[in-house]
Design a protein that fits this description.
Layout: E1 2-3, H1 14-33, E2 48-52, E3 55-60, E4 85-90, E5 105-108, E6 111-114, E7 120-122, E8 124-127, E9 134-143, E10 150-156, E11 160-162, E12 172-174, E13 184-186, E14 195-204, E15 207-217, E16 222-227, E17 230-231, E18 237-247, E19 252-256, E20 267-275, E21 281-289, E22 299-305, E23 313-318, E24 321-330, E25 341-352, E26 357-362, E27 371-374, E28 377-382, E29 390-397, E30 400-407, H2 413-422
Parallel strand pairs: 1-5, 6-15, 17-24
Antiparallel strand pairs: 2-3, 3-4, 5-8, 7-13, 9-10, 9-14, 10-11, 12-13, 14-15, 16-18, 18-21, 19-22, 20-21, 22-23, 24-25, 25-28, 26-29, 27-28, 29-30
Length: 424
């Protein structure tokens, strides 16, 4: 199999020349090693190597040709110049390609990558240097798994094109439709199209020649990150999950924004790889910590790296930690005096889920007659002796309840005026 090369990048016949020189050296060495040095003639010109059938002979005359010249292959004739000494060795017949002619090969690309729903071109070209080989037919053979070979495209110069595999119906076509370049295009790719694609020629007289391209189908993962709603507690639990689903190859997940020091219970705790359909993989990563009320609303970042993505995917998640309510009261300024209007107390409540029940009461029983409730606010329309009490706010959610209280002291009008005058 020969891969596509740049034009003009033709390999010189260096190895053929080297091989010929090595053969000559071996033949001469064998002749001389089998001959006593004293038996070699001491007179005359140099020797000549002559091929006779499957034998190579070294002829060495005792006297040169007429004129005393050196014996050469052109001047040597067995009948006119019989040598007085020669040695022959038998060599195996060698089959070498003619000088300047490269061995015929099928040029293909070794490996290609593609994605579902897209298209891919499988290139194939027959290099017929010198035109000594006759091309009769070309076939594309698909091997989805080892041992299974299915014809998907056939081209014959007389009978035309054929696409015998129903799995590729209306999805495969010859680009040029010639024997010299029977490249094909597969469209609407599927993950199941992965495998080995062999471009196989039927030729004369050398027989079948082929080249194989491996098609690797890739899949971009579906990335997501989500919070896991948990209750505040004392043990570590998973509070967020990051997922890279149905990717090929599998994605790699990293958490940012709160990684623990080594040995701490907080941080990524579990990772799992689940095999999916058609060779894909789903990767899951959980982020664990000991949840506290203060972790509610905290943000974490998940990063997914995968071969098919042009850049790293980034997802941000906000943690959801449930905890019972906490209650406090604000608004009392220690200046409630007789006759003051619109004194306001506010019940501050935190909790997740948000408390749905907020109630006001006093430790002495009833609220003042002028008290008005609006959500978490209590407004005393006119301060009188009934406001001289302890106000209590209570809140509850599904996890429990809490209460806060504040005691109001009602001042007389004269005391209020003195307080306003002195600032105390």
């Amino acid at each position: 199999m020969q891969h596509f090369e740049r034009p003009g990048n033709k390999r010189p016949p260096f190895f053929l020349m080297l091989f010929t020189i090595i053969i000559i050296i071996i033949v001469v060495y064998r002749i001389l090693s089998e001959t006593d040095a004293s038996a070699l003639p001491r007179r005359g010109g140099g020797g000549v190597l002559v091929l006779q059938g499957q034998k190579v002979c070294l002829f060495w005359p005792c006297s040169g040709p007429a004129g005393g010249g050196r014996l050469t292959r052109a001047s040597w004739q067995p009948s006119s110049h019989p040598p007085t000494w020669h040695r022959c060795v038998t060599v195996l017949p060698l089959s070498l390609p003619p000088a300047g002619v490269e061995a015929q090969r099928v040029r293909v690309e070794e490996e290609l990558e593609a994605y579902p729903t897209e298209e891919v071109d499988l290139r194939c070209q027959f290099v017929n240097a010198g035109g000594h080989t006759k091309l009769t037919q070309v076939s594309w053979i698909w091997e989805p798994v080892e041992g299974q070979r299915d014809n998907i495209a056939v081209f014959h110069p007389t009978y035309g094109e054929s696409f015998p595999n129903p799995s590729f119906e209306n999805r495969v076509a010859f680009i040029l439709g010639t024997l010299d370049n029977p490249s094909i295009r597969i469209s609407d790719l599927r993950m199941a199209d992965a495998g080995r694609y062999t471009c196989e020629y039927a030729t004369y007289p050398s027989g079948n020649e082929q080249g194989t391209t491996t098609l690797v189908m890739l899949a971009k993962p579906r990335n997501s990150v989500r919070a896991v709603t948990v209750e505040a507690g004392s043990e570590a639990v998973a509070v967020a999950v990051c997922e890279a689903a149905d990717g090929k190859p599998a994605g790699s997940i990293q958490w940012l924004g709160g990684g623990p020091e080594e040995g701490a219970p907080e941080g990524p705790r579990t990772n799992a790889s689940l095999p999916g359909a058609e060779g894909t993989t789903t990767v899951l990563s959980e982020y664990w910590l000991v949840p506290k009320a203060t972790d509610h609303g905290r943000q974490l970042t998940c990063r997914v790296a995968q071969r098919t993505q042009t850049e790293t995917w980034v997802g941000v998640v906000t943690l959801s930690v449930e905890y019972p309510p906490t209650v406090s009261i604000e608004g009392y300024d220690a200046n409630w005096y007789m006759g003051r209007s619109n004194a306001v107390l506010t019940c501050l409540v935190t909790g997740n889920p948000a408390p749905t029940i907020v109630t006001w009461r006093t430790t002495s029983g009833r609220l003042p007659d002028s008290a008005v409730l609006s959500g978490n606010r209590l407004t005393v329309g006119k301060v009188d002796e009934a406001a001289n009490t302890t106000f209590v706010c209570e809140a509850r959610n599904k996890l429990g309840g809490d209460s806060g209280q504040i005691t109001a002291s009602v001042l007389g009008e004269s005391a209020a005026r003195r307080r306003d005058t002195t600032g105390n």
